Amino acid sequence: MGFNLLDDATVLLHERFVVRQILQILSQEELVQGNLLDSPERQIRPPDDFCDTVLPVANNGVEFPMKRVDPLGETKIGPHGQLENGQKFLFNYFTLPSRNKNGTYFVLVRDLMQGLNCDKDTLEVDFLNSHPQLYPLNATPDELSLLKANGILGDSSTETKFVTTRSSFVLFGAAVVAEGTRLVDDYWETLGKEQNFSSHHRVHKLSFKTFDLVKLLKPAAFSTFKSQDKSYPSPDESSFDLPYTIINEQFSPEIREEFGRQFSVGQHIDVVVPGQSITGSLELSAQFKVPKYHSKNSFLQANQINGLDIPIEKHEALLNGINTGNRNSASPGATPHDSTPASVNTSFVKPPKQVSRMLSNILDSSINLSTARNTDEMNVISAKNSYNVADRGVTSQLSLNIDGWKFDGLPVFANDVAQTQDVHYSAKGLPTYIKSNLVSRLKHLTPNQIKEIEHQHDCIFVNVGLQRVRQLRNQKWTKYWQYKSGIPMGLRKRDKK
Fold first, then answer.
1. CB neighbours of 369 closer than 8 A, spacing ≥ 6?
2. Residues 169, 187: Cα–Cα separation, whole Å
């Protein structure tokens, strides 16, 4: 005697399986087979005479005997109605020694209907009449008490009907199996293949819970589906009229007249209207280069002398020590221990990777200044990226090369310019330095600090440049909307009166 209750974990796994399968086939009507809240329109048709409905003699008179079987289906269910291969039913099932001492498994008709997601208003009598291949059995008072005691039946039930699990599986196949798949979990697998079914065809009727989950995850693929108190409109029935009026720009008579005149003589010109040049993109990799304050071998040399965290003014002394040690090692009587200081590593160390912007991998590195589009934004950036006479007293041509570390790109005051002048920031956004103070500060920098400064200055260059472009585009959009509204372009707030 055994009582097998459907657990919540199995139900949860089954619901996830159904949602995942429906999302994969939702756009294919042949696989979906109709409304998701109904059973599939096309199902495997078993033979009309696969069982003898005249006399129930099989399994001691608890089910109709089968006249035709499917060899593949027989491998999926045992003779007493137990599923093979570790599969589970979507309902509670049990055995009754009073009916069959061999341990035949039964299922309540109402539990079978619940596993098939039948409508709640469907009566057991109507369900059994529509499926005459099932042989219903009435529970005796003792059997009712036994079912109630083991949680199969509610305490208030006074009568119930049940059928064998084997006959249920033969008739409904994968629809009564948790995570059931067409053909794989069907009894009539051979017939299913002959009827052009595949394992991707929908099997289960969706509950309202799983239907809402599918609709939430993929709402655009739905047609009209109606539930008990919900109606989901089809996109074809929805109105695509916007609730507000769209203003379409009309070219002025002067523009249309000029276009017609040029077109009449064979000159196909483009009509230029305000706002046309606002669109476009900025090639960051072409306009904003990461500043380099190092030469080709600066970091390599610093690595070889273990000087990445040593100020650059001390690198020359370390190099002299290495050269002196090498000469001593070449002279007679020199020992290996005298050739190189203990703190210096003369073995080759792979140089650090070249400094690059974090988003450089998504930028087009093939774009350069010569091929960039000649737009107002590009002109602003190009003009501001170079030091010019607008920055009074600022020069970048003074030599700031310190032992191979190149700081000539930093803006400094000219020697004849007083510090009190109101030139504090360069066009790129960096402060203007006093050369005499700057040189001593640069000598105290370590290679690792220089690498960090390159990244910091790169951020300043990009932010300042983009803000200037933003200001220019803001002016363009302001004039564009002024033109659209019919007021004079360039009008400012103080001129509105």
1. 286, 287, 382
2. 7
CA distance 133 to 336: 98
Cβ atoms of 81 and 166 closer than 8 Å: yes
Return the structure tokens found at 268. 């196909």
- Residue 26: CB atoms within 10 A of its CB come to 19
3-class DSSP assignment, residue 163: strand
Cβ partners under 8 Å of residue 152, min gap 6: 3, 5, 92, 94, 108, 111
- Going 9 to 10 to 14 to 15, the CA torsion angle's sign is negative
Rounded to two decimals, what is the model's pTM?
A: 0.47
HSE value, Cβ hemisphere, 13 Å, CA-based, for 66: 18
Q: Which residues contact 184 (CB under 8 A, 6 or more apart)?
A: 174, 199
Q: Would you give the DSSP letter of residue 21?
A: H
The answer to whether residues 413 and 398 touch, using CB atoms and an 8 Å cutoff, is no
- DSSP E strands in 205-301: the ranges are 225-226, 231-232
Residue spans of beta strands (DSSP E) within 368-424: 394-395, 401-402, 405-406, 412-413
Longest Cα separation, the chain = 119
Q: What is the DSSP letter of 231?
A: E
Torsion over CA: 397, 401, 404, 409 (sign):
negative
Q: What angle (nearest 5°) sits at the alpha carbon of residue 138, between those of residues 43 and 55?
A: 65
Alpha-carbon distance of 351 to 304, in angstroms, equals 9
Q: Provide the CB-side half-sphere exposure for 312 (13 A, CA).
A: 24
Give the three-state DSSP class for 463.
helix
DSSP, residue by residue, 94-120: EE-TTT-TT--EEEEHHHHHHHTT--T
C-alpha span between 83 and 89 (Å, rounded): 8
Q: How far apart are the first and last CA of the chain?
A: 96
| Residue 70 in tokens | 């499917």
Q: Of the spans 181-185, 333-337, 378-382, 399-403, which averages the highest pLDDT?
A: 181-185
Classified as helix, coil or strand, 173 is helix
Helix (H, G, I), strand (E, B) or coil at 2: coil
User: 173's torsion region: left (phi>0), alpha (psi -120 to 50) or beta?
Assistant: left
Length of the chain: 497
Alpha-carbon span 443 to 477, nearest angstrom = 48
Considering only residues 201 and 377, tell me which one the structure prediction assigns the higher pLDDT: 201
Q: Which two tokens stand for residue 262?
A: 């040029």
What is the rounded distance in angstroms from the CA atom of residue 20 to the CA atom of residue 26? 10
What pLDDT was estimated at residue 402?
A: 81
pLDDT at res. 409: 80
Contact 424, 337 (CB under 8 A): no
Per-domain boundaries in the chain? 3-232, 284-482
